[in-house]
Design goal:
The protein is mainly beta. The chain has a single domain, classed as Sandwich (Immunoglobulin-like), CATH 2.60.40. It contains no helices and seven strands. The strands form two sheets. It has a four-stranded antiparallel beta sheet, with no helix packed on it. Strands 1-5-4 form a three-stranded antiparallel beta sheet, with no helix packed on it. Strand 6 (59-69) and strand 7 (72-82) form a beta hairpin. It is elongated and about 40 Å long.
Length: 88
């Protein structure tokens, strides 16, 4: 991803390769250098979570999706690298 872009970020939630379950209470967080820069409730389509992301600086971001599954609270983490200039 490049600085100045705005992208839809997706998280497809599966357990042991299946999506035959329902998640509830989803929340996302975006962290940079351990500090929260964004949080909210993602759009949910079945077990696919998504939100729109437009970073204000280059660097590495962590995305954390958390949600409830039956009696458990689960977190899934991924990363996004934002480059300053396209092609650099």
């Amino acid at each position: 991803m490049y600085l100045g872009e705005r992208r839809q970020i997706f998280g497809d939630i599966s357990v042991d390769g299946t999506t035959e379950f329902s998640i509830s209470s989803p929340v996302y967080q975006v962290l940079k250098d351990g500090m929260q820069v964004e949080t909210g409730t993602p759009a949910q389509n079945g077990n696919r979570l998504s939100f729109l992301f437009a970073p204000d600086s280059a660097g590495t971001y962590s995305v954390v999706f958390s949600f409830d599954l039956a009696t458990e609270h689960i977190k899934r983490t991924g990363g996004i690298y934002v480059d300053e200039l396209k092609g650099s």
